Amino acid sequence: MDVTEQAEEQRAEAEVLPDAAAMLSGPPEATPALTVYPPPPPQSAPHTLNRTWLRIAYVAEFWIALIAVFVAWSQIGGQAHLDLMAWYIKLSCAVAVAFCAVGMTSSIAERPRAWNARTMIWLLAILVLLTLMSYITYWYHLHEQDDQPSDENSATTVRNRMIEHDFPRVVIKRDREDC
C-alpha cells in the first residue's frame, strides 16, 4: 500500500466520521458525546526476501558445492584415480552433484516443510550420483596400469619350487646300502 493511498483512506474516513457522530449523538442535551476512536493502522505483510538475492545465494552455493565435490572426491577416491579419468567425466559428475545440492536447498527454502517430496527426490538424486562416482572411481582403480617402466636390460628370475625340492634327493642318494 502506497503512502498516498493511506493518506486518501484517512481523509475518506475523516469525512465519514463527523456525519456518523452527528447522527448518533442526536440532540446535544439528550445523550452524552460519544468518543470515536480511529481504526488501527493496517498491518503490513511480512517482508519477503527478494528473489534476486536468493538467486545470488544459489549461485554461490553451486560454486562452493562444486569445489567441495572435487576436494572430497580426490580425498576419498584418491587423486591418482582422478588423474586417470577423462576431464569430461569428472566435470559432468561434479556439476550434476552440485546442481542437485542447489536443487535440494531450493526445495527446502521454498516449501513450508523442510523434508518434503521434492527434497527427498533431490536427496535420492545426490545419492545415485555419488554411487555412480564411486563405481567410476573403482573401475579406474581396477584398470590402472603399473607406472614402473620395464627395463629391457634387467634380468628376470624364474623359480620352480618343485625342482628345488627334488634336487637334493636326486643328487644325494640315501639308500640303505650307503649308510
- Roughly how much helix do the residues carry, as a percent range? 55-70%
Mean pLDDT: 79
What is the tally of beta strands? 0
Please provide the ordered H/E string of secondary-structure elements.
HHHHHH
Structural class comes to mainly alpha
Strand content: under 5%
Radius of gyration: 42 Å
Number of helices: 6
What characterizes the major β-sheet?
none
The 3D shape can be described as rod-shaped
Low-confidence stretches: none
Distance between the termini: 122 Å
Give a brief rundown of this model.
The chain is mainly alpha-helical. It contains 6 helices and no strands.
Q: What's the arrangement of secondary structure elements?
A:
Elements: H1 3-25, H2 51-77, H3 79-84, H4 87-110, H5 117-142, H6 161-171
Helix pairs in contact: 2-4, 4-5
Detailed description of the structure:
The protein contains 6 helices and no strands. The longest helix is centred in the middle third of the chain and has 27 residues, at 51-77. It has a domain at 51-141. The chain has helices at 3-25, 51-77, 79-84, 87-110, 117-142, 161-171. Helices cover 65% and strands 0% of the residues. With 179 residues, the chain is mostly helical. The radius of gyration is 42 Å and the shape is rod-shaped.
